[in-house]
Description:
There is one protein chain. The protein is of the alpha/beta class. The chain has seven helices and 17 strands. The chain has helices at 10-24, 37-46, 64-69, 87-92, 105-122, 171-175, 221-232, and strands spanning 2-6, 30-34, 51-54, 57-58, 61-62, 76-81, 97-100, 129-132, 137-140, 145-151, 154-159, 164-167, 182-186, 189-192, 196-201, 207-211, 216-219. It has a five-stranded parallel beta sheet with strand order 2-1-3-6-7, with helices on both faces. The chain has a five-stranded antiparallel beta sheet with strand order 12-11-10-14-13. Strands 15-16-17 form a three-stranded antiparallel beta sheet. The radius of gyration is 21 Å and the shape is elongated. It starts with a strand and ends with a helix. The relative contact order is 0.09.
Amino acid sequence: MRILIIDDEPPAARRIAGYCEEVFGKEIQTLKTFHALFPAIYYLEDNPVDLVFLDIDLNEENGFDLLRQIPNPSFYTIITSSHTEYAIDAFEFSVLDFLPKPFPLERFAKAMVRVRNAVKTRGIKKDFIPVKKEESLEMVKPETIAYLESDKNYTLIYLKNSASERVRKTMDKISEDLPPNFIRIHRSCIVNLEEVERILYGKNNTFQVQLKNNTRLPLSRSMFSQFKKAFEA
């Protein structure tokens, strides 16, 4: 379980972290706390998270802004706030639960039953690739991607619908979160194997990969054998 706590009150954040450790124990992979909204948003750009505990009143920031910027989050959200009047608004964002502060361990544990049930029935939400827009952070589903190309410290993501996105993250970093059907065909290109139509054989022992949308991409000699084996499997 990868957990993120966003709360401007350090004692409250520590209490939630302690509850998490008591309930989840060794299931916790990462447990990160932020006391302001935007550092948390930047963290989400590069780090997959399964569960977010989100306060609403964050000094001069509003926790709902996180859910507005990420309308289809890849994580489950639980609101923690002393302002119960926010509850109706919270559930409009499809949060998993609303915990009115202060809440005891028993109430927290009840909310975690909801988390476990959600994970059991729907699974840990699939990792999405965060794409930072001018005023929002959108999540791209891996299955919508045709291929990716490296652009120095950025990555160009080409979608099946012919749209493209430029992400402020290296391709090597993104590849860590991609499913196994994404195969590197060149040092600067990764392709979705499900979108490959055929391998093209050229002169002088050169190769290309042709996608279903007729895009042709170079296939390096050093990666030919590994890719051919995966393609024909």
